[in-house]
Every structure is written in C-alpha cells, then in structure tokens.
Amino acid sequence: MCQVDEEYNGQLEHRVTPRVSKKCVKCKENTAVLIIRAGDAFCRGCFKEYFIHKFRAMLGKNRVIFPGEKVLLAVSGGPASSSMLSQVQEGLSRDAPKKLRFVPGIIYIDEGGASGQSMEERERAVAQLESVFRATNYHYHIVHLEQVLSLPSSVLDAGSSATEKPQTGSSYKAAVDQFIQTKKNQHPDLSVENAQSHLSSLSMHEVENGVTSPITPEHTQALQKLFASVRTLTAKEDLLHTLRQHLILHTARTQGYTKVMMGDSCSRLAIKLLSNISLGRGASLATDTGFSDPRYGDVVIVRPMRDYSSKEIAYYNRMFDIPSVFIPGLDTKAQDKASIQHLTESFVTKLQTDFPSTVSTIYRHPPPSCSTLPAGSS
Amino acid sequence: MVSLLSLYLGGGAELLFGSVKEHHVTLPNQSEPWDMKQLLVWIRGNMLKERPELFVQGDTVRPGILVLINDADWELMGELEYELQDKDNVVFISTLHGG
C-alpha cells in the first residue's frame, strides 16, 4: 500500500533543463530549436516535415475520408483549427506527393452573443477570419450562434449511415467503391474528378459564400437570456459546446457534408477527457475524444489534430506564419476554479510543465474501436 | 550590455498588455547582464496592465505559456538562466486557448 512518507527519489521522471545547445535528434546536423514531448529536440526543417507528415499519416492510418467527399472544417480562428486549415491546404495542393483528395468547406461559428462581445467586436473578428478564408478559395460558412435557437429538433436524431460498414479487412476499398457508386447514381454523367470540379465551380459562382442571414438584437438577447439562466460557468461551457456541435451538424447536413474535421489538439482532448469524467460523461469518452465520432450516423466527426500538442501547434504557427485570430471566450481571464473545465485545464497544464508525459499518459490507451459499439447505444 | 529588446505576445497573452502584441523595450543599465528571471520581474512591474498571476507565477511564466528566444524554445537556452543579449527577440505565446 502507498504510505504517506514513501520515498520516490529519482524514480519519477523529471525534466532536466539542458545547458548546452543540442543537435536535432533527427538529422543530427542542425541546431535544435524546439523540444517536444519528453526531450526530442528538432531543428526547424525536421520539425516542419514531422508536423506535415503527422497530419497525412493521421488521415492515412484511420482511413475514413473518401476521395471526392465533402468535408466540413470547423475553424474557430484559434491556433489548432487554423493549423488544421493550413495542413488541409498543404495536403490538397497540387505539388504535394500523394495529395489528399476531398472537397473541403469551412465553417466558423460566431459565439460573441454568448460570451458578451459587442456587435463591432464580432464583426471585426468575422472580417479578419473572412480574409483568411477567402485566401484559401474554399467555400465557407459564417454561422451565428443565435441561429441555433431556430434549429428544428430533428437535428438531434441520428441520421442513418451513408454507407454500410463492411466487416472484412478490405473495408476501406469497398467503402470507397460504394461511395463512388452512390455518387454516380446521383450524378450519372459525372465521374469523381468532374464531380470535384463541378462542386468547386458551384461554390465559386452560383452559391453565395455562406454568410447566413443577419441576426437581430432580439436573437442575441434570447441567446443571452438562455445563457444567463444557466447558473454555473461549468454548465455554460457545456451548453456552448453542445449548441456549437448542433449548429455544425445541422450545417453539415443541409449543405451535404458527410464528414466534419474538428481541430482538437491532444492537450485539449486530455483536458476534455478528464473534465468529461467529472461531468458524468464517462460513457461517451471514446466518441468524445477518439479520432472518429460516428454517433450522428450520416455525419462523422474526425479529429486529425489529435496527436499534436498545443506547444507544437503554437510553435509551428509562429514559425511558418499561420494566421490565427484570438477571440475571447467564456472563460477568458476567469479564476482557476471558475469552472470544472478551467480547473482541469490548469491542473493538467501545470502538471505537464514538470512531467512532460502527463498528457500522453492520460491519453495513452486508445479508446475501444467505435465500430464495435452497436448503433444507438451510448 | 543589453539595451534594446523586442517582445511579442500571442495567443491571447496580449490581452494582459492592453491588447498590444509588439513591444520594444529598453532595459535600464545594470552591472550584471540581464537574465530571463530578471526580465520577468521587470515585465511584471512595468508592462503588465492587469492580472499578473495569469502571466507570471512565482519565478517563472504561468504553465501553458510558450517562450521563444530568437525563435528557439527557451528550454534549449537554459530557461530562466539565459542571459539576454542586445537586440534579442523574446516571444510569449499563450497556448491555453485551444482553438
């Protein structure tokens, strides 16, 4: 049994501050500029390669994205989702070897109504983000959180899966073939390549880039009343997360997207994992923090940034000029103990500073494969 | 001797500095070279506009704030013991707002 005065000298792993400049552990030639995880020092070039490769490997290993599929990227403007956006651009660019093939769209949810920002601040943030989105040439949707109040309740129903999940090992190839077949049936005169250019030309000219209908002050007040009726910050954050999820889901369904990419980093997911246990959501840990979240049936949520720590993302964005916009949230400048989520974040971050394996330990055992869960069970 | 430093704040840390991201500071002369520990004390006393505990905790920065000195991780430079040189560029990025 553990005793109060048990000695742990030297047995717990502790970070040692290096005094001499180190060489990159990968190329062993250049001076290292960044330490990630528990002591791997990388030089700038090797870090960039590692970062880009990890994204592709993540998508390649978990083969859930089909070529030509419409994927909605949920971008909040923060560092992780901005980084995800730039990785998608990188992966889809013509000169990338083995380039990714899917049709991306972007969604940004303006939550200023809930976090008490003024209309001018919200418009300023939206304008900044719009300039970032326009530079990508992808179709984008700007949705205000107030619109969630007018969503039909059918958004809560799990849609049926677009494809049957084949049981055999060649499931990915079979799923892709089935997907292409379904698309062919919808557009009998278009092949996959034509479909891709057809969709992108649609988005450029015929469909207006989605800034949805402007909201009135009454809408904002109704939203603020909703949030004011929730008494604790913990519950407010949880409510905000749920409403955001529903809006994204609804947009994906109405605009024909079958996949949604969220930019949760591993640090954020580790915090979410612990917070969710405290909030009583232990049963859905696997779907809340795993790579793919199939509980909505027709729209699958994937988290390709799952293996990146906040530090890696912040460093990459700084070094390679990835634009991101800081938007204050519900818990900005809040006290440590203001909410369960905030307290957990403070706990994990503090522990991670002294024990760099904290996040990977919380997270180490991959959640049980979601395909083994019967549909409809939570 | 250190005279001019350029500081950059990102990731939301700028909120504590009047929402200004870029700062150029001239540190007062002193006999020993300035190190990061003293710089933090100086920043706390002279630049932080509010809520110092959200930036500095004890001797060092709050956990979750990434510090870069001349575009390199400060862990590789000795962290608090690093001695500042003239025209160094120090970056503080808060990684606490996920995105």
TrEMBL record, chain A:
Cellular component, GO, one term: cytosol
GO BP annotation list: protein urmylation; tRNA wobble position uridine thiolation
Pathway terms, separated by semicolons: tRNA modification; 5-methoxycarbonylmethyl-2-thiouridine-tRNA biosynthesis
Stored Pfam families: CTU2
Chief location of this protein within or outside the cell: cytoplasm
The keyword Cytoplasm is annotated on this UniProt entry: yes
GO MF annotation list: nucleotidyltransferase activity; sulfurtransferase activity; tRNA binding
InterPro entries: CTU2, Rossmann-like_a/b/a_fold
Coiled-coil blocks: none
Keyword match tRNA processing: yes
Gene3D superfamilies to which the protein is assigned, alphabetical: HUPs (3.40.50.620)
Location in or out of the cell: Cytoplasm
Keywords assigned: Cytoplasm, tRNA processing
Signal peptide: none
Protein family according to the UniProt entry: Belongs to the CTU2/NCS2 family.
Annotated function: Plays a central role in 2-thiolation of mcm(5)S(2)U at tRNA wobble positions of tRNA(Lys), tRNA(Glu) and tRNA(Gln). May act by forming a heterodimer with CTU1/ATPBD3 that ligates sulfur from thiocarboxylated URM1 onto the uridine of tRNAs at wobble position.
Protein name: Cytoplasmic tRNA 2-thiolation protein 2
Organism: Oncorhynchus tshawytscha
Upper lineage: Eukaryota, Metazoa, Chordata, Craniata, Vertebrata
Automatic annotation (TrEMBL), chain B:
Alphabetical list of InterPro entries matching this protein: Beta-grasp_dom_sf, Mopterin_synth/thiamin_S_b, Urm1
GO biological process, alphabetically ordered: protein urmylation; tRNA thio-modification; tRNA wobble uridine modification
A GO term from the CC aspect: cytosol
Modification type 1-thioglycine: residues: G99
Pfam families to which the protein is assigned, alphabetical: Urm1
Pathway entry: tRNA modification; 5-methoxycarbonylmethyl-2-thiouridine-tRNA biosynthesis
Similarity comment: family membership: Belongs to the URM1 family.
Task performed by this protein: Acts as a sulfur carrier required for 2-thiolation of mcm(5)S(2)U at tRNA wobble positions of cytosolic tRNA(Lys), tRNA(Glu) and tRNA(Gln). Serves as sulfur donor in tRNA 2-thiolation reaction by being thiocarboxylated (-COSH) at its C-terminus by MOCS3. The sulfur is then transferred to tRNA to form 2-thiolation of mcm(5)S(2)U. Also acts as a ubiquitin-like protein (UBL) that is covalently conjugated via an isopeptide bond to lysine residues of target proteins.
Name of the featured protein: Ubiquitin-related modifier 1
Phylogenetic classification of the source organism: Eukaryota, Metazoa, Chordata, Craniata, Vertebrata
Designated gene of the protein: URM1
